């Protein structure tokens, strides 16, 4: 092979390998998405009766106590995934506090800090909650179990479950007091 053709052939081979890798990545991601719980597509909200039961998961409190979603059955549940480095999560937190103050006796709240051990830690999350004066229940997902259960790829992500654990609302963006309040009021009158 001539010295001029060799780099061209290598470049073509490299392009083919990269293309094959991209196709393989897309196929694997599609398979993972198909295995995810039945929730709305990115950016959509889901409000429909008879939705899927949310998968159980276990998180821990700041004191290390393990708590499972299945412990919350019997009341509606607001599950909120967040992190201190997420500006939309920070903006949403006052509404979550107001919702907790309004509905906390009749609705379970599971505000789940997605801890990675570097950018987000139990210490940084709990310190931020304390500095802000928030009193809603905060749990820490140290294993990714809770994020996997909800197929969480964006923050903030919020699910509202009915008393049986069925998904009533799903949102991959910050929620407002009014939006969530309307849903909770409806669930509590059923």
Short key terms for the protein model shown above:
5-stranded mixed beta sheet; alpha/beta; 17% strand; 190 residues; two-stranded antiparallel ribbon; single chain; 5 helices
Provide structural commentary.
- This protein has 190 residues and is of the alpha/beta class.
- Helix content is 39%, strand content 17%.
- The chain has 5 helices and 7 strands, in the order αβββαβαβαββα.
- The strands form 2 sheets. A 5-stranded mixed sheet has the order 5-4-3-6-7.
- The longest helix is centred in the first third of the chain and has 30 residues, at 5-34.
Number of helices: 5
Q: What's the overall geometry?
A: globular
Largest sheet: 5 strands, mixed
Number of strands: 7
The string of secondary-structure elements, in order, is HEEEHEHEHEEH
Q: Which whole number gives the mean pLDDT?
A: 83
What's a concise summary of this model?
Helix content is 39%, strand content 17%. It is of the alpha/beta class.
Please render the helix and strand layout as text.
Blueprint: H1 5-34, E1 58-60, E2 66-68, E3 77-82, H2 87-103, E4 108-114, H3 122-132, E5 138-141, H4 145-149, E6 157-161, E7 167-171, H5 177-188
Parallel strand pairs: 3-4, 4-5
Antiparallel strand pairs: 1-2, 3-6, 6-7
